[in-house]
Fold:
Amino acid sequence: MPEFILITGRTSKQGAALHKGKDSAEYRLATGFVSMNHEDREHLGVEAGRRVRVRTAFGETELELKEGKLPPGMIFVPMGPAANVLIGAETQGTGMPDSKGLKAEVEPL
Structure:
């Protein structure tokens, strides 16, 4: 299974959906996807819009695949319920778990 480097972060669409609540359909759509670049997506053999399984040492989740402007070998998941499953809870005393540079596998469904 191909291995990628996972980064997480906030998006403007996520911020716009937040005012409707974290349980809203808008927020789930704004945070429930994974992005990767065109070449990685083609190498994986999956079309944009399809679902994939993303797995790290902390957990796994199924997400919609979107094509994005990312370097080869890197994937992005917006901070939210899906990202929380993937990044774990250990904060090493900082109050924030590691959310960048995690090894992740992506599997087409």
